[in-house]
């Protein structure tokens, strides 16, 4: 299913800033812009209420991971395929295998943006 998907990243991984992430989302997954805007608004509101940067850091981290995965067409296609498969499975061993692979993709994305090292 992922054979016809390009292997090269669509864009370089952007810095974890709101502006750079918004630009990346606009280029590689414009349909996600409403979710981006909504989550940004929620993060800003929470940051103001708490007088803390944690909600903004969480927002930029979440979207950096999202961009890291989706800027790579093969990885994004496999991720979506695994998510769909996980929703259909009943067998515990199959669920474990699928969620383990999803976890590896997420671990690789965290490592790629410099947040987790293996």
Would you mind describing this structure in some detail?
By secondary structure, this protein is mainly alpha-helical. The chain folds into two domains: 15-71, no CATH class; 73-118. Helix content is 70%, strand content 0%. The chain contains five helices and no strands. The chain has helices at residues 18-28, 33-50, 54-70, 73-88, 92-112. α2 runs antiparallel to α3 and α3 (54-70) packs across α5 (92-112). The radius of gyration is 16 Å and the shape is globular. The relative contact order is 0.14. The mean pLDDT is 93.
Distance between the termini: 29 Å
Portion in strands: under 5%
Largest sheet, if any? none
Overall pLDDT metric: 93
Structural class: mainly alpha
Q: What's the oligomerization state?
A: single chain
How large, in whole angstroms, is the Cα Rg? 16 Å
Query: What is the overall shape?
Result: globular
What's the helix count? 5
Low-confidence parts, pLDDT < 50 over ≥5 residues?
Answer: none
- State the helicity in percent bands: over 70%
Domain count, please report it.
2
> What's the total count of β strands?
0
Order of helices and strands: HHHHH
């Amino acid at each position: 299913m992922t054979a016809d998907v390009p292997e090269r990243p669509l864009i370089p991984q952007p810095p974890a800033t709101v502006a750079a992430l918004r630009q990346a989302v606009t280029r590689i997954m414009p349909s996600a812009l409403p979710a981006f805007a909504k989550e940004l608004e929620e993060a800003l509101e929470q940051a103001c209420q708490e007088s803390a940067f944690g909600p903004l850091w969480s927002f930029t981290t979440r979207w950096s991971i999202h961009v890291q995965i989706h800027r790579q067409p093969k990885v994004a296609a496999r991720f979506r395929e695994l998510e769909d498969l996980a929703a259909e499975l009943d067998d515990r061993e199959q669920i474990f295998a699928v969620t383990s692979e999803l976890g590896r993709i997420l671990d690789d994305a965290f490592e790629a943006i410099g947040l987790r090292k293996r």
